[in-house]
Amino acid sequence: MKTETFKALAETAYGKKLAQSIEYPVEYDAYTSYAEVVSANDLLSEQETVDTRNTQRKANARQKALQVALDAAGIVKPTIENDSQMRLRKMYDLFMANGASSSEARIKASNALGIEWTE
Description:
50% of the residues lie in helices and 23% in strands. It is of the alpha+beta class.
């Protein structure tokens, strides 16, 4: 096993949107080979395997059906090319990463792009 670490971001808690996102570290022990899983006696049972695969297949089918429904409704995925507010958020993120305060970053992003915040 080897220890893996990553940072996660919480934007909601207990069903409510947080006023400010919270970044937190996560650490866990990851298997590095199938042999480690076997030696730890951590294999999935036959029923767990069936349940896991069905959950994966259901999620995949749901996502595909959602895309068909969105396409049929004419809803286009927002990108920085077709959504001015997304461009504004990206510029805001850059100013924040450069050390600006939240309010300062909002003003600078709006001024730089000539776009007003609607969200």
